[in-house]
Amino acid sequence: MTPRLPALRIGPYPVDPAVVLAPMAGITNVAFRTLCREFGSPTSLYVCEMITARAIVERDAKTMEMITFGADEHPRSMQLYTVDPATTAEAVRIIVGEDRADHIDMNFGCPVPKVTRKGGGAALPYKRGLFRNIVSAAVRAAGDVPVTVKFRVGIDEEHITYLDAGRIAEGEGARAVALHARTAAQRYSGEADWSRIARLKEAVTSIPVLGNGDIFSAADALKMVEQTGCDGVVVGRGCLGRPWLFRELHAAFTGAPIPDGPSLGEVGRILTRHAELLADHLGEDKGLRDLRKHMAWYLRGFPIGASLRQRFALVSGLAELADLVGELEPDVPYPADAEGPRGRQGSPGRVVLPDGWLDDPEDTAVPVGAELMHSGG
Ligand SMILES: Cc1cc2nc3c(=O)[nH]c(=O)nc-3n(C[C@H](O)[C@H](O)[C@H](O)COP(=O)(O)O)c2cc1C
């Protein structure tokens, strides 16, 4: 039986089905979001790449360009990386005052050493007072624009923060929380512990709780809802090179039969569409270069031979892509071994923190040097 997903609202917006494209730096630009929306529901939620508050305040040209949405994209959902309540408020005032987005998600899940070493990303919720001040600053500056908060389980198994983070975000007026059910020390390795999503759902009762981690198929999404009672699912790596996963998720949550994966001919058409959207957004040269990182994901498991695979991975123009797509055998069905985990996995590692970071969780001091200028991770 299809698990019943209660109607999800994030502030004023219905999210139906309750499926969210996870923010992914270097991936979820306007082209990829458009493609996912074409397969999924226009009323699901598709979050942009991470944008840093400092870069907005400085009006960094590249960052301002990254805050690009499709003409009919609604709500325009952006993700903010931030470590300082004052910069947060200033950045949110710019976003809202200049009508640049309809929803702001806050990133407290980044496990990258260069970020945690300074106290940013997944290190930050350990400082409960500072975390509270940042969320509060964002919510107050955002006015009617809903703010949501995304975080991990904690720094590591000895420093678990997600239940406090959830309650604090709820208390400060966040409109939903999302949990990537791994610690920062796990990075992307091992398995997400979905039982923690269930625990968070028990702790946070007045706003939606979204579950994230290791949804690689529509069946995984149904299982997460069934096992955790979460109000919606956030899907990241599962849709790398598989934007049609949104078609499958839509079917699963509306009780329709889950369609088969695309044939090789269809994959050729889909990656051509992706290329065209990227060329519109970035220009043909940059757009096709950006597409290269998606090629191995799109073609995974299809028997096309090493040489053609290599030429796809180096494609540099739309005409060349059309020639390559013309060489694909259109009727090859979607391969079973393209299923399962994909995207980065890596290995666990100790989380590097600033000196003395764990001494006082109530300390509200803004960490020095943790602001990032570079949007997109
Ligand atoms: C390439 C890549 C980039 C990511 N960038 C961000 C980001 O900018 N902001 C964020 O909150 N999470 C980011 N994440 C984490 C995802 O949003 C998500 O939480 C994580 O991948 C777990 O979900 P999954 O198992 O469905 O992939 C990124 C993940 C990947 C693989």
UniProtKB/TrEMBL annotation:
Required cofactor names: FMN
Role noted for this protein: Catalyzes the synthesis of 5,6-dihydrouridine (D), a modified base found in the D-loop of most tRNAs, via the reduction of the C5-C6 double bond in target uridines.
Enzyme class: oxidoreductase
Family, similarity comment: Belongs to the dus family.
Residue ranges of domain DUS-like FMN-binding in the record: 21-321
Annotated region described as Disordered, given as residue ranges: 332-364
Organism: Actinokineospora fastidiosa
Chain positions recorded as FMN binding sites: P23, M24, A25, Q79, K150, H180, G236, R237
Catalytic residues in the record: C110 (proton donor)
EC number: 1.3.1.-
One Gene Ontology molecular-function label: tRNA binding
Name of this protein: tRNA-dihydrouridine synthase
